[in-house]
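Propose amino acids for all 386 sites.
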């Protein structure tokens, strides 16, 4: 039986889909949960032109587009329990949900924040009951805003008001919100203040809800859960650093930090990367992987051990520019990637590579705002929100 590393070394392009707008960046990717007895899944792609595009995962054919967004989009995620419900966050202070069975571009639910909110991150918990979004810092405030996410199958044009807000735990932009994969009460947040916080939202107030604070000493770019029972958390930083913590060690004499690298570009000896894209935990083999890229379009898979990071495989011949988004499918060990070349690629082990052609890199500078700020150690302002 082949090892996972051997399977990864056999990844090839299985299919390709190009955006109609050749200057559109693919910023985020999510895939709907599989339906029992059916093989088709839907891929949602967040684009830099303020649209969400849906594709059939196997054929990569275009299904439909949602373009009713008045601001910059920041994330796209499918419901965990209803494969037809899709969520997106917008810089205009709303989170929207879409029913992919409903034609047209009208959102079925709109979750409204407070007047000054600019949402730059969000997630929905594993029970599909709670949506949480993180905001940019405005004056002295950086919020985590929560809503009841339940959907009754009908279009509701009225704004849904928040259930509550956390405002004391970050003092800069909340760039990441990530719920625990199996515990609906646990949520982690990351910020440009360098902090990664883990909350139990079942507690009565923010002070009691804050379980642990980890410091990345940088600006948090990506956040994920790992380990058996997902009791570990890791982050990637905007300056290509990596931090990995074990929450099981909180009440022990063992250090909570498992691994910390200030700059991953200087710590992988057998391959060269220009940046980190994201990471994913492969629960079947209890292994954490990181994904790095080159600005020429190649993507490298890295195996993360407790004391070192090793190169597994580099995917060539797919993209011709910076890769911004990456989705790993645990069901069949396939992956999807998208980037600044306006290409969405499906990679599979032992694929015949029947779609090798790639587009030329775009001759344009990125117009996207990269939220990177110098790490601040000042304490946040205390503010109570009921």
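Proposal:
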């Amino acid at each position: 039986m082949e090892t996972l590393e051997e399977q990864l070394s056999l990844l090839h392009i299985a299919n390709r889909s190009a955006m109609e707008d050749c200057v559109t960046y693919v910023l985020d990717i999510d895939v709907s949960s599989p339906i029992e007895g059916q093989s088709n899944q839907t891929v949602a792609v967040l684009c830099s032109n303020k649209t969400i595009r849906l594709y059939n995962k196997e054929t990569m054919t275009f299904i439909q587009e949602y373009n009713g967004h008045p601001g910059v989009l920041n994330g796209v995620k499918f419901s965990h329990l209803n494969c037809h419900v899709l969520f997106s966050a917008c810089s205009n202070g709303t989170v929207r949900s879409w029913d992919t069975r409903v034609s047209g571009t009208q959102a079925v639910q709109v979750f409204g924040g407070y007047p000054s909110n600019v949402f730059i991150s969000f997630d929905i918990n594993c029970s599909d009951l709670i949506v949480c979004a993180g905001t940019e810092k405005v004056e002295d405030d950086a919020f985590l805003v929560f809503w009841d996410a339940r959907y009754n199958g009908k279009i509701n044009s009225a704004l849904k008001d928040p259930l509550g807000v956390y405002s004391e735990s970050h003092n800069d932009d909340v760039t990441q919100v990530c719920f625990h994969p199996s515990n609906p009460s646990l949520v982690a947040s990351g910020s440009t203040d360098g902090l990664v916080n883990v909350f139990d939202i079942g507690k009565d107030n923010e002070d009691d809800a804050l379980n642990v604070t980890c410091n990345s000493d940088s600006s948090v770019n990506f956040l994920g859960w790992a380990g058996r029972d997902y009791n570990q958390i890791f982050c990637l930083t905007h300056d290509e650093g990596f931090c990995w913590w074990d929450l099981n060690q909180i009440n022990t004499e063992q250090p909570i930090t498992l691994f910390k690298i200030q700059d991953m570009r200087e710590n992988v000896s057998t391959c060269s990367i220009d940046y980190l894209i994201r990471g994913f935990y492969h629960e079947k083999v209890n292994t954490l992987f990181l994904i790095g890229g080159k600005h020429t379009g190649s993507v490298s898979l890295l195996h993360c051990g407790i004391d070192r990071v090793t190169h597994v495989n580099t995917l060539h011949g797919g993209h011709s520019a910076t890769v911004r988004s990456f989705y790993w499918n645990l069901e069949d060990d396939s992956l999807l990637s998208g980037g600044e070349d306006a290409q969405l690629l499906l990679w599979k082990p032992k694929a015949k590579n029947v779609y090798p052609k790639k587009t030329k890199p775009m001759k344009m500078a990125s117009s996207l705002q990269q939220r990177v700020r110098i790490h601040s150690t000042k304490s946040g302002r205390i503010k109570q929100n009921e």
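Residues 8 and 308 are 19 Å apart (CA to CA). The chain has a mean pLDDT of 86.
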